[in-house]
Specification:
Number of strands: 11
Pfam family, one: Glyoxalase_4
Order of helices and strands: EHEEEEEHEHEEEHE
Distance between the termini: 30 Å
Protein name: VOC family protein
GO molecular function, one term: methylmalonyl-CoA epimerase activity
InterPro entries: Glyas_Bleomycin-R_OHBP_Dase, MMCE/EMCE_epimerase, VOC_core
Keywords: Metal-binding
Structural class: alpha+beta
């Protein structure tokens, strides 16, 4: 457990082929089911202080308490994911800490000297921010707000993984507007 942020709740992997990655994780590692969104609805996205419209495909599943995120970049918008790929890497890109008090935790991290690089929102109360902390591959830190519909979706994904029998390994993302 991090003495600054609590437990790591998500491991984020940047992949070149998300369908192949979901297949590997479910068939070889037994992790699933995967909740897949071919185009995540990211609002208010910024990278290095500039606004962009990213197109990322994302799949989420849990292995016990930890959520695994697979990310495939679908356009050339500046992002930490694109930077990771351009550096010749794939695999673990970030670890995420979840919060229900985003503003307070963000202020605490900024006061400790953390430098924001990428941010946005997925659903109401679904803000996220990535800090410039890649001192070696896989060490980018994300602070992710898990309130509202995004928090409910994460609960649903974790519940689906419990006693998963391998059936229906890929499922659509729930509609955040209905959660």
């Amino acid at each position: 457990m991090s003495r600054f942020l609590g437990e790591i709740r998500q491991l984020g992997y940047v992949v070149n082929d998300i369908e192949a990655a979901m297949k590997y994780w479910s068939e070889t590692l037994g992790v699933g089911p995967w909740f897949y969104n071919p185009k995540v609805p990211i609002e208010n996205y910024q990278y290095a202080g500039e606004s962009y419209q990213p197109h990322n495909s994302v799949a989420l599943a849990n292995s016990g308490f930890v959520q695994v995120e697979l990310i495939q970049v679908r356009n050339d918008v500046p992002s930490m994911y694109r930077d990771f790929l351009r550096a010749g890497r794939t695999g673990l890109q970030h670890v995420a800490y979840w919060t229900t008090d985003y503003d307070a935790d963000l202020q605490r991290l900024l006061a400790q000297g953390f430098k924001p690089l990428m941010s946005g929102e997925v659903g109401k109360n679904g803000r996220f921010i990535y800090f410039d902390t890649e001192y070696h591959p896989g060490t980018v830190i994300e602070l992710s707000e898990v309130m509202g519909s995004k928090g409910k979706m994460f609960d649903l994904i974790r519940a689906a993984s419990q006693d998963w029998d391998g059936q229906n390994p890929v499922r659509p993302f729930p509609d955040l507007n209905t959660l």
